[in-house]
Write a structure and sequence with these properties.
Strand content: 5-15%
Structural class: mainly alpha
Number of strands: 3
Number of domains: 1
């Protein structure tokens, strides 16, 4: 019963983070960002983590650890990466998800649950890293104005870009 309550709290916390994130992003003034997919990816990833946690309430006990471990790992990794913005809020949701995962693994201590939980956590982090690599490097310039910056990369080779009235110039 405690695991279900904590899981519901983790879902609510994660959905609250999505609402907070979108509110913060919409309130920021300034030139349009060229990495147009990062915000939708982060919001979608958070929604996916909330959906995994919610789904864990509906599945058989043997599947709960995997779903909750995936959400726990994904939320924790994103919370660390977003440390200077909404990271603390994400880490609160991650802490609740981790507690729910631990309770699910205690309730279902089989090797199958442990292995599936580990694999699911690795896949959630791989999706996060792959998603960021793609979104950070998919650039689109606004039709008017000038801007520029650099892209991040987990692989160590980000780019420097400039936008000039809709024309994108990238240096690797």
């Amino acid at each position: 019963m405690a695991g279900r309550v904590i899981t519901v709290l983790a879902v609510v916390a994660t959905l609250s983070v999505v609402a907070l994130y979108i509110t913060v992003i919409r309130s920021v003034d300034g030139p349009a960002q060229a990495d147009v997919l990062t915000v939708p990816f982060v919001a979608g990833y958070l929604l996916l983590m909330a959906a995994l946690l919610a789904a864990s309430l509906l599945v058989r006990p043997i599947a709960r650890p995997a779903l909750r471990a995936a959400a726990s790992a994904g939320l924790f990794a994103l919370g660390v990466l977003a440390g200077f913005t909404i990271g603390v809020a994400i880490l609160i949701a991650a802490a609740l998800a981790i507690a729910s995962t631990v309770l699910a693994m205690i309730a279902e201590p089989s090797a199958r649950s442990q292995i599936s939980g580990t694999i699911a956590a690795v896949l959630a982090i791989a999706l996060l890293v792959g998603g960021f690599e793609f979104t950070w490097n998919y650039l689109a310039c606004p039709p008017t104005g000038e801007s520029g910056g650099s892209t991040a990369s987990f692989l160590g080779h980000g780019s420097i870009y400039a936008c000039d009235n809709g024309v994108l110039t990238v240096q690797h």
